[in-house]
């Protein structure tokens, strides 16, 4: 007997993957972070949950500017995106406890980019045993947690990480000031 996995949210994408223009620009410009699945926003880049994931927790990091290839990024944009990849790893390890992660960039349609014009980095938590016949043969993923719950958990973890990072930076800066400068120690 054939088993069925219900994933009705994917039908919108499967029917028309290019519908509505650039979803990353729409997320960037949205006043409703939750509706746009925005997990974190920085000065030059944004972290957005994949609305049509093939596994739980699939995040995308994109520059705020609509650029399609790596050579169009500034050094500052590239650095901020890599820092966000690092933050995604830390947040996933704390909140979702994966055994590993896939991190990748698809540049161009031939490379598998579903959105060609707005470059983005995929960060996907993975667990031992989560690659099975469903993904390999049926081109189907099984999502174990709903998007609203994931969004809440990941957004909270990013906010806590940012707050803790700010406290560490402030403490380090104040220690430097007390010791009389920023010389090498």
Q: Could you explain how this protein is built, in words?
A:
By secondary structure, this protein is an alpha+beta fold. It has helices spanning 10-15, 23-29, 75-95, 133-136, 147-178; strands at residues 38-41, 45-49, 59-63, 100-105, 121-126. It has one domain: HIT-like (HIT family, subunit A, 2-Layer Sandwich), CATH 3.30.428. It has a 5-stranded antiparallel beta sheet, with helices on both faces. Helix 3 (75-95) packs across helix 5 (147-178). The radius of gyration is 19 Å and the shape is globular.
Count of all domains: 1
Number of extended strands: 5
- The CATH architecture designation is 2-Layer Sandwich
As a whole number of angstroms, the C-alpha radius of gyration is: 19 Å
The CATH topology is given as HIT family, subunit A
Record the strand order, biggest sheet: 1-2-3-5-4
User: What kind of oligomer do you see?
Assistant: single chain
By secondary-structure content and strand pairing, the structural class works out as: alpha+beta
Give the biggest beta sheet: 5 strands, antiparallel
Q: How many individual helices?
A: 5
Beta-strand residue percentage: 5-15%
CATH class wording: Alpha Beta
Mean pLDDT: 77
Q: First CA to last CA: what distance?
A: 68 Å
Indicate the low-confidence ranges by residue numbers: 13-17, 169-185
CATH homologous superfamily heading: HIT-like
Shape: globular
